[in-house]
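Sample pair:
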Amino acid sequence: MLKKLKNNYFLLVSIFLILYFFFNLLSGQRGLFSYFEKKKILNDSKNKELSLLDQINDLDFKNSLLGDNLDLDYVETLIRERFLFGKKSEKIYIIKKND
């Protein structure tokens, strides 16, 4: 038995090393599964960045409307939406959903 192990020593070490590298290829911090996970996180982060940039651009545009050159139409729209104001001849209806 010991003689067979000595004869097949190179084969056993080779099999062990192949299995070791195969498992490290698939798992671990730099493995294949980790790569796909990090790629998914990167895509999610890029999508989130794009949505945040859109929100920033929208807020910049709204801020520019309230800057030095005041847009009175936009101010009127804000007052109507937030404070439910209207003109004298207007009637404002508030529709509430009954859940």
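The chain has a mean pLDDT of 83.
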